Amino acid sequence: MVELGRPVLAAGLALMDGVAKLHRELSPQLHVIASKTIADHRIPQWLAALRKLRPELAVELDVANSQQVTTAVRDREIVLGFVEGPQAPAGLGSRVLVADELVVVVAPTHPWATRTRPVSPRELADTPLVWREKGSGTRDTVWAALQIHGTPARPAAELGSAAAILATTRSGLAPAVVSRLIVAHELRAGTLYEVDLDDSLILTRKFRAIWHRSTPPSGPAGDLVDLAARIEAARPTVRRSTGN
Fold this sequence. Notes:
This protein is an alpha/beta fold. 42% of the residues lie in helices and 23% in strands. The chain is elongated and about 55 Å long.
């Protein structure tokens, strides 16, 4: 009897696998990739809004630095990406979603925490900083801004995550330049201080949606880009807050 039942069981399992595969193929899916800052601080709200609009949609999110995101979209591995940086990636379609302010921060024990005059662009360029890894949108933005005033000093450290940068900066090793989004809670708590900069140095970057020019976002991808732009346009401006 056991031998007779095996073909029936096998057929049943095959049928269940076939139904599951068909369901996966028919279910709407969206695969996107985003830079680390956007993935941590913006994508969750964008996806929540998309979920309300398209509750049947399954979204897969990959996280990388901006250079890796650009490569994945350019190579057509993923249809839609989100990056941060001063310029749009060459050869790709893009849409600016919002500007992001970068700030210089130091530990409360660092000499810059209590200085009364702004840091000049040349002084910042000459100072070893805690940097993000190469390929990061934050690094590219800061490097481009400082190069105008001289070759940036050799990094005090190069780290691959915002959490590592904040922890290292809190230790007093060196100043860091980070997104205000990332450091806002540290500034409120007084565990890091924001440093005043000379008015001639403006550190901002853009958050962008990017895609291959031959395949602009449509359907769920287009909805996500539109929702992200709408949410960012309605978001209150984050105001400057220093600890000193």
